[in-house]
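Here's what a typical entry looks like (L-histidine N(Alpha)-methyltransferase):
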Amino acid sequence: MDPFVTFHDQHSPAAAGSLSQELMVGLAATPKYTSPKFFYDRRGSELFDAICEQPEYYPTRTEEAILRAAASEIAEAVGRDATLIELGSGASRKVRLLLEALHPACYLGVDISRDFLLDSTRRLATDYPWLEVHAACADFSQPMCWPEGLSGERPVAFFPGSSIGNFTPAEAEAFLVGLAQLLPPGGGLLIGVDLIKDRAILNAAYNDAAGITAAFNLNLLERLRRDFEAEVEPSRFHHLAFYNEVESRIEMHLVSRCDQAIRLAEERFFFAEGESLHTENSYKYSVAGFVELAGRAGFEPCAHWTDRDALFCIHYLERAA
Ligand code: AVI
């Protein structure tokens, strides 16, 4: 127990063996793939933070500008004294743009990265002494329950960053169905969703000139070497990211520069020259398309806010009765 933050440990980390098993299933598949969760070791998280600072990567600064500009309207829609639950809270940076206006009774940060979660919620508790702060170490993409002892009148989930876009639409719907089950009728969801737009803007955002997104993608292979003792030479792959208009998604791949093999545990996975490892999808939605998806999961739209250039959208929805 911390003097400022009530900590709830709901996560037993997967054994390295089962993660390596999961990697091997993807490497043996046709086409080859890995889950985007493997990006986020310490170096990957640092590179992601650096991506958010790149001039081409508009989502972070656009979402923050919308939160700043719409804070009082959002507060009006959400109401005071809510129990605000941030999924994937990370550095708890974006929620700071809302706290004064929203004045929730209680804040719960949910994140899988224990140390990061504790540091950031402690900083939040210090900076907002009037706020009851909880931290839950949990994998929110798996079924979970809210911890005991949260005060507040109504739970409102906050899921910024368009992380919903890293699920397929079917996974996103299943995730929202699970979330709806955790909320009472009238419980809220404040969610950031990246919008469909001109493909040149999208392609640039995932191919920044400084090469940070490429480094983020290639770090996956470095990580395979560091954490899973894989035999792989990252320089023999290159970063590829493009907008797939039919699927409304950015695809990220690592493309093999030559015929080669990756060895993981006792298995060898062969890549022909030009063959790719599909490392991430980032789906983009229209406002109506996302409202429809959330509606199928049991949420009713209440309000939404976009920027002037219609790059990004923040939706407020409530669980239907
Ligand atoms: C975390 N997620 C919403 C980011 C995105 O845009 O899909 C991850 C990312 N991948 C490459 N750049 C950023």
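The chain has a mean pLDDT of 95.

More examples are in the samples folder.
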